[in-house]
From TrEMBL:
Limits of the Leucine-binding protein domain: 37-376
SUPFAM superfamilies in UniProt: Periplasmic binding protein-like I (SSF53822)
Superkingdom of the organism of origin: Bacteria
Signal peptide: 1-26
Sequence similarity: Belongs to the leucine-binding protein family.
Protein name as annotated: Branched-chain amino acid transport system substrate-binding protein
Amino acid sequence: MKKRISVLSCLVIMMLVLLTACNTNTSNGEKGSSEGTIKIGVLASMTGPLESYGKQTVNGFELGLDYATDGSNEVAGKKIEFIVEDTETKPEVAVKKATKLLEDDEVDFLVGSSSSGDTLAVVPLAEEYEKIMVVEPAVADSITGSEYNPYIFRTARNSSQDAVAGAAAIAKKGVKIATFAPDNSFGRDGISAFKEAAEKLGANILHEEYADPAGTDFTSNIQKIIEQQPDYLFIVWAGANSPWNQLADMKVEEKGIKISTGAPDIPALQTMKPLVGMEGFSVYYHDLPKNEVNDWLVTEHKKRFNNEVPDLFTPGGMSAAIAIVEALKKTDGDTNSEQLIESMEGMSFETPKGTMTFREEDHQALQTLYAIKLESKEGVDYPVPTLIRELSPEETAPPIRNK
């Protein structure tokens, strides 16, 4: 009897060993994703000065997964999970959180981040761990330029795309322009790109002014600009500490200086009532794009978020999610980075802003931007970006800077 039990026990143990080996081979093979689950790590500023940007991106990303998978959160038979980590808009924290996602959570993709500084700190990790990172919404040219690596794909527009749109609104031969931006990679890259685009159109950039990114008093900066007597003041800005009220208090426009900038998110638009009539550009406003994906986004966002419309960075989060799902459809769920890179280079996909295409040379998504004018609208407590004309992906294609 004991001998029979012993033989049965051995058979059971052998079967368990074989099953374990089979499961191990399935989870650790070329597919890369354990137990049929694809993991995505999302880096975003969930607190701090860019908190609203981070939350918009995360909301958009969640909606994008639902849209791209028809609500199943599955692709090629694999479940998709995403983990959000708060970078606090601090590069050292971003690196720590990204390392945690890559090592402890073993994510297959990274997405983020809200600030260019955070993103530039994390970009080398994507190459080190050989994981695709979809950059959203950071805009510094250097991300897909001097700091480019083949694992980086960007659904966010970059500073040069903003610059082309901004220059198209105001720059022409003989126009004198001063610029104002925060003294960081986002601000300096933005102004450098704008200057290049505006000078090509014949404008004269006669002064560049940079301010403390964490500052709140811009009196001396604005006074220096006034002293230069430009025709236009072009501003690159992000964050809650915006200069709009001080520009109004110092009566800049009354001194004959027209202000132009990219239309910000809705909370910032509420501080720009003195700028009604301003012509500039927009990355996104929910009424501007006319396509089925944006219609879905606006309708679904209102359902889920207390009848609120999607804001400036919501469609970017959605676009990042759609890009990842479309890439995984092409690889049949394989998360091998080399196969993903091959599939994503030159890939076009539909987003709330229309068709985006990852340019093969630098993985920057070519996309539509919008020339706009800020106008008053009955029942709306902020200046509304109204469309002058769409700026096509071809028109706003930025220079390739990763050579």
